[in-house]
Design goal:
The chain is α+β, with helices and mostly antiparallel strands. Helix content is 25%, strand content 55%. The chain has one helix at 2-62; strands at 70-80, 83-86, 91-95, 98-110, 113-127, 134-150, 154-169, 177-191, 196-208, 214-218, 221-225, 230-243. The chain has an 8-stranded antiparallel barrel with strand order 1-4-5-6-7-8-9-12.
């Protein structure tokens, strides 16, 4: 009785081992599927978050800038550039670099656009050559259009200006000279609060003059003459902005 039952037991053990091996393979395959499915889920979630973020950014960029109606700026900086020719000595004299003070009034005319009124004043000297320096005040009265790009806190801006420049000698005997001037300004406005901010800007000016036209004249006699067709000048600086 013992002899015939032994082979049946060995066959049963072999069958059980094969069944367990097949079960383990199916379990590993299911685990791999789960891990693969989890990876796909994470990738899908990341792509969804990226899509939402890009859509929000695009929507923010398409919304018009909500800038204030009126901006009033007190400005200061450093002005430089420009030269004339000394008539008597036939030497070039340059305007010395000096501080510039002024202000700007910006009025909103459309979303992202302002009309600007700019005034600046620089007390400088005509120096160089053998003769003594001459004190001169340079005043600018300019009107322009300004575009702002950014958000309510930080805005880049560019301004195109047109108006006049006055060269005023600080001597009673000499007459001031007014000349047509165009300008371009580029800068940044950073608002600390809704109504108070800082303004940083660089400006360039081209003053139209007549070749050999005189300046600092008295009774028809001029001490200096412009050379070329225009005078290039510029300034860099900043100030405080009050917005309403």
């Amino acid at each position: 009785m013992a002899g015939p039952s032994a082979p049946a037991t060995m066959d049963q053990l072999s069958h059980d081992l094969r069944a367990r091996s097949d079960g383990a393979q199916r379990t590993r395959g299911y685990g791999s599927y789960q891990r693969s499915g989890g990876g796909v889920s994470r990738v899908t979630l990341a792509l969804g978050c990226l899509t939402v973020a890009l859509a929000a950014q695009a929507q923010a960029q398409t919304q018009p800038l909500q800038q204030q109606t009126v901006q009033l700026s007190a400005l200061g900086g450093w002005g430089f550039g420009g030269s004339v020719r000394d008539v008597a000595l036939d030497q070039e004299r340059s305007f010395k670099a000096a501080p510039v003070l002024g202000g700007a009034l910006d009025v909103k005319v459309a979303p992202g656009w302002n009309a600007e009124l700019l005034y600046s004043r620089q007390e400088t000297k005509l120096a160089g050559g053998l003769s003594p320096s001459v004190d001169v005040t340079i005043e600018r009265y300019l009107l322009g259009i300004q575009e702002e790009k950014g958000d309510e806190r930080v805005r880049w801006f560019g301004t195109v200006l047109l108006g006049g420049t006055r060269f005023v000698p600080r001597r009673d005997a000499f007459d001031p000279e007014a000349r047509l001037t165009g300008g371009l300004g580029l800068g940044l406005k950073a608002f600390l609060t809704k109504n108070v901010g800082l303004r940083f800007e660089a400006r360039g000016f081209y003053t139209r003059v007549k070749n050999e036209g005189g300046t600092l004249c008295a009774n028809g006699t001029c001490l200096f003459a412009f050379t070329g067709s225009g005078v290039w000048q510029g300034d860099v600086g900043g100030g405080v902005v009050l917005a309403f």
